[in-house]
Amino acid sequence: MTQAAALDPLHIAVELIRCPSVTPKDEGALATLAGFLAPLGFNCERMRFSDENTPDIDNLYARIGAGGPHFCFAGHTDVVPVGDAASWSVDPFAGEIKAGKLFGRGAADMKGSIASFVAAASRLVREGKLIEGQGSISLLITGDEEGPGINGTAKMLKALRARGEIIDHCLVGEPTCVAKLGDMIKIGRRGSINGWLTVRGQQGHVAYPHLADNPLPRLMEMLRRLDAHVLDKGNAHFQPSNFEITSIDTGNATTNLIPGVARAMMNIRFNDEHSGASLDRWMRGVFDQVTQEMGGAYEFETKISGEAFITAPGAFSALIARAITEVTGLTPELSTSGGTSDARFIRAYAPVVEFGLANATMHKVDEHVPAADLGKLADIYEAILRGYFSGAAFR
To answer: What pLDDT was estimated at residue 393?
Structure first.
């Protein structure tokens, strides 16, 4: 076999950033990525999924090797909108390097991490490691992580399982670090449930309250009881769950009108002491109690974005931590903080840990990362891969 050349992560990252792949648009991002992977020997497969109520999404599954163990890197090439483009000091999609920093939408979240992983994998492929039956490397890359999350990772995983492909371990390249590269990895995530509450009354004139039924006192009492309740105090791996009111609205712009309907939105970020279903039952119980005491009627709808999960500390997280320490000298914190990610889908298929660049500027104006961190991250990913395929713990 002709040895493939190792790749430069900074060059890959710049080329990916230059694809303005704001969800659900791809704008050549997946083809650009495949252009780096295919010459290395990766079999690159576009996986497109549709749904009646959401945009069609292109995804990429690239794999080299046929046997086990199978190490999968998961990520996304879609990015959030740039916001106020005039506030950027650079073109958000130019991939400009200034003062040793790579600027651009997706630099941190998460085209930089994808680039670093491709560069790391290229070093092993160059040595022929995976062609000799030592295992498989794959990349599971979606274009729908920043969007609804319907036609991306979840459907890719289901399709792969249906055809018998088994992922043994997965690393998600989300930007997990806080102050500097290597200070944090994610071994789990809190769950998230959104709620939409409608309380109904009777519209009327404020001077004649006996002829109306104001739904706001009932709504406020419902929300007060939810907000006053302590869900838990956290545990060894998770911070406390938190309930947040995100909107209260009557659609009423008139000062002398009692509204007929009041609405509220809410979110709970919860740890593994709860489930989405248990929290749904708790909220409905509170609403039922208030309705019994104060009268009226309500409607309530919830959507669970993901359940809380944890990959218990063990050989896989230890391997990643050792690689980080080897390159940076830091001992990473094992955390479950932050929002949701596609790891919530992957955890049903394989042990999953998240580690990538610093997250301080993700989704912000002038998103950027130190250019040198891409090389360091590639070194960390390389050390993870070498440890994974040489270690008996994963065979």
So the answer is: 76
Report the run of H or E that residue 63 belongs to, with start and end.
Answer: strand 54-64
pLDDT at 196: 98
Cβ(171)–Cβ(355) below 8 Å:
yes
Q: What is the DSSP string of 249-296?
A: E-----TTEE-SEEEEEEEEEE-TT--HHHHHHHHHHHHHHHHHHH--
Q: Give residue-wise pLDDT tens across range 126-170.
A: 887 665 667 999 999 999 999 999 999 999 999 999 999 999 999
Same fold for the pair 9-189+308-394 and 191-306 = no
265-302 per-position pLDDT tens digit: 999 999 999 999 999 999 999 999 999 999 999 999 99
- Beta carbons of 370 and 106 less than 8 angstroms apart: no
CATH code matching the domain that covers 9-189+308-394, chosen among 3.30.450.20, 3.20.10.10, 3.40.630.10, 3.90.1150.10? 3.40.630.10
Q: What was the pLDDT predicted at 1?
A: 37
**Phi, psi (rounded to 5 degrees) for 383:** -65, -35
> Annotated catalytic sites, by residue?
78, 145
Specify the amino acid at residue 60.
L
CATH dotted code for 191-306: 3.30.70.360
**Nearest-angstrom CA–CA distance, 254 and 340:** 39
Nearest CA-CA partner of 362 in 111, 141, 144 = 111
Mean pLDDT across the chain:
95
The CA distance from 121 to 44, in Å, is 15
**Bridge partners, 244 (sequence order):** 267
Its pTM stands at 0.90
CA–CA separation, 76 and 143 (whole Å) = 6
Question: Domain spans of the chain?
Answer: 9-189+308-394, 191-306
pLDDT (tens digit per residue) in 211-237: 999 999 999 999 999 999 999 999 999
